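Milestone 3.1: sequence recovery, worked example.
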């Protein structure tokens, strides 16, 4: 186990229901194994109901909520996917503002699969190069991003480092890039 993220606290922003479990748990484990402290942030307190595609999976305790948290408590942000998760988050102005604040503060952000929907709503993808689940490419282009079909994309053309990946099959490369981006 490395200690690359020692003393780093990483926010994982998720809706109370609809997060793709593996897109939460694998980056979470990578952050922990690198010595970091992941924290689950949501729009409500209680437990998060994760999913394995369309099937209910495990539940996870929520550490804090967006209405009482801000970017100053964290060194970076991860936005897992799942279709319902970012679709819910992008309709919550406090969650959108929370995500936007990491860009405004120049802190690294990592996003996978459908997660970029929250960033589109936050209006922070303009001029950025990123990837996502293929069905989001038009949304990202319309929001001003350059979409690429790659396992992982690291974009430094903006106020922060933005790491993005397409799908669960990309998680190994995504997790490596997440740790690298957050240790800076």
């Amino acid at each position: 186990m490395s200690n690359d993220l020692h003393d780093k606290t990483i926010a994982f922003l998720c809706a109370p229901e609809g997060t793709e479990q593996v897109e939460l748990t694998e980056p979470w484990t990578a952050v922990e194994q690198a010595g970091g402290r992941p924290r689950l942030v949501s729009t409500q307190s209680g437990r998060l109901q994760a999913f394995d595609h369309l099937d209910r999976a495990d539940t996870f305790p929520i550490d804090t909520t967006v209405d009482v948290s801000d970017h100053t408590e964290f060194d970076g942000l991860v936005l897992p996917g799942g279709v319902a998760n970012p679709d819910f988050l992008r309709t919550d102005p406090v969650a959108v503002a929370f995500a936007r604040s990491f860009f405004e503060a120049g802190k690294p952000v990592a996003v996978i699969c459908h997660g970029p929907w929250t960033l589109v709503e936050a209006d922070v993808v303009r001029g950025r190069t990123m990837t996502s689940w293929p069905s989001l490419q038009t949304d990202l282009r319309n929001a001003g991003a350059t979409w690429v079909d790659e396992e992982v994309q690291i974009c430094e053309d903006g106020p922060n480092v933005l790491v993005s990946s397409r799908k669960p099959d990309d998680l190994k490369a995504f997790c490596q890039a997440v740790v690298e981006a957050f240790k800076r």
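The CA atoms of residues 133 and 146 lie 14 Å apart. Residues 21-33 form the longest helix (13 residues).
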